[in-house]
Design brief:
Order of helices and strands: EHEHEHEHEHEHHHHH
Number of helices: 10
Shape: globular
Number of strands: 6
Structural class: alpha/beta
Helix content: 40-55%
Length: about 210
């Protein structure tokens, strides 16, 4: 059996953390390794515990989830961050994803769906619920990467499309009959050409530009 997915809970409400822990502890492949009550503590605990996945609220006193995401990126922390929140406004959704969140779900998500979401982002997928993609598509057009899609090769466009579908590098390699190393090179080239920070932003760019023609 593979090692369980190490998860850190970051939320300012103790009852929420307790509820998440109670459910996740019955999952054979998920282990809750720690908790934090705000973004600053979450960053410190993430550096200490090195979880694979962080469940992060957005609105918290002091350092909020978006600032914590930015700090984790600055530190080069490899944890995949899944935003779990009750806030659905575009002004919350889009900055969180641009700051590096690997996915976004709401606190009323079905428990089994939450476990599936943790497994999905841990596997390298980008998790965009339909209403979240909707929020992004109605956001004003971002300047980053605008008009640069023409510089991508046909193969890079194929890879980008699969990233937007939430495929991991391994799955892309299998679908296109390439080595995983070659896929990683294509992903790096895509990010460089579109001036994007990570594959989450690449997925957002692909969704936005596919919808706009």
């Amino acid at each position: 059996m593979d090692d369980p997915i190490r998860v850190l809970l970051v939320d300012d409400h103790q009852v929420v953390r307790r509820g998440l822990r109670t459910f996740l502890e019955v999952q054979d492949d998920i282990e809750v390794v720690g908790e934090a009550a705000d973004g600053a503590e979450g960053v410190a605990r993430a550096e200490e515990l090195r979880p694979a996945v962080i469940l992060m609220d957005v609105r918290m006193p002091g350092t909020d989830g978006i600032d914590a995401l930015r700090k984790l990126r600055e530190l080069g922390n490899p944890a995949r961050v899944l935003i779990v929140t009750s806030f659905t406004e575009r002004r919350t959704v889009v900055p969180a994803l641009r700051a590096g969140a690997a996915g976004y779900v709401y606190k009323d998500v079905d428990p089994d769906a939450l476990a599936a979401a943790i497994r999905s982002v841990h596997a390298g997928h980008v998790l965009l619920q339909p209403e979240v993609a909707d929020a992004i598509l109605t956001q004003e057009e971002a300047n980053s990467g605008q008009g640069r899609g023409g510089s991508l090769t046909e193969r890079e466009r194929e890879v980008l499309g699969l990233i937007a579908d939430g495929r991991s590098n391994r799955e892309i390699a299998r679908a296109l009959v390439l080595s995983e190393k070659t896929v990683k090179t294509h992903v790096s080239n895509i990010l460089m050409k579109l001036d994007l920070a990570d594959r989450t932003q690449a997925a957002l760019w692909a969704v936005r530009h596919e919808a706009s023609g």
